[in-house]
Amino acid sequence: MHNLIFLDDLNGADLDPYVRLNEAQLFHALEPDPGLFIAESPKVIERALRAGYQPASLLVEEKALTRDLADLDHEMAANQTSGLGQTPIYVANSKLLRQLPGYNLLRGALAAMHRVKRLELADFLATMPAEHPRIAVLESVVNPANIGAIFRSAAALGIDGVIVTSDSADPFYRRSSRVAMGTVFQVPWTYADAKTWQHAGIDLLHQAGYQTAAMALRHNTVSIDDPKLTAVDRLVIIMGSEGPGLKEATIEQSDFTIKIPMAPGVDSLNVAAASALAFWELGNRVAE
């Protein structure tokens, strides 16, 4: 039995996560405990629930209620995951929901979900596969859509984990998780404090037995299909900010600088497009 609460307005404090709190405020909403994030659309909510994230509440469009709850219940049963239980499910008509930013993108449902504490970098590395691990580092990637697209490629193309510097966009921002189609809940990831990353991040990766490949153009840059890269057992692929790219210190400390061969007159790709090509070449491909 679902805990349905039909709304006449959006004024209640329980609706603040959907109506009045921005994503930074949601992130800090429950301090010192991890905060909240919004999962947007039934598909994204399904993947968050499947990954074990607990909902604080849902907000569902009335005309889509039967369909969306049936889909979510079916998904939970199929994956032997605990269902929605007594989670408050707020139900609103289309007229009310039009007051929300991005109404046309909601596709019927939103969920306020509890965050979990991310692992420290050393602990995160210890969870990676023992053989042939492939990790991506996103350094100062600030566009949520790019973050989402990179995660989607990582999930599809054999990347075992992602490290996101703290000055990047949050993978759980609504736009990030929507573009990722919920794969931000599927790929293991953690944060690296931006200052700590610059001072000690690559040293820590080296100490853990990884070699690092920075996506940058230098005199000694090698192609992503160079056999030296595929021969590396433990590899980290590092990609940088959409504008300036990787920091000079990151490039200097890396074992390789790598490039995607391109036609004359074009020297770079959007970081999301570049990630897909690099992951295809260097990730742990699924056997055909």
Describe the protein.
The protein is α/β, with parallel strands linked by helices. It folds into two domains: 3-114, Ribosomal protein L30/S12 (60s Ribosomal Protein L30, Chain: A, 2-Layer Sandwich), CATH 3.30.1330; 121-282, Alpha/beta knot. It is built from twelve helices and twelve strands. It has helices at 16-19, 23-27, 42-50, 65-78, 94-97, 121-126, 144-156, 174-179, 194-207, 227-230, 248-253, 271-282; strands at 3-6, 36-40, 55-61, 88-92, 109-114, 134-138, 161-165, 189-192, 211-215, 222-223, 235-239, 256-259. The strands form two sheets. The protein has a seven-stranded parallel β-sheet with strand order 8-7-6-11-9-12-10. A five-stranded mixed β-sheet has the order 1-4-3-5-2. The chain is elongated, with a radius of gyration of 21 Å. It starts with a strand and ends in a 6-residue tail after the last helix. The relative contact order is 0.13. The model has no long low-confidence stretch (mean pLDDT 89).
Rg over alpha carbons? 21 Å
Q: Describe the sheet with the most strands.
A: 7 strands, parallel
Question: What would you say the CATH architecture of the largest domain is?
Answer: 3-Layer(aba) Sandwich
Number-wise, the strands total 12
For the record, the count of structural domains works out to 2
Q: What is the oligomeric state here?
A: single chain
Count of alpha/pi helices: 12
Structural class: alpha/beta
Mean pLDDT: 89
Can you identify the CATH class of the largest domain?
Alpha Beta
- Can you tell me the CATH superfamily of the largest domain? SPOUT methyltransferase, trefoil knot domain
Q: Choose one word for the global shape.
A: elongated
Helix content: 25-40%
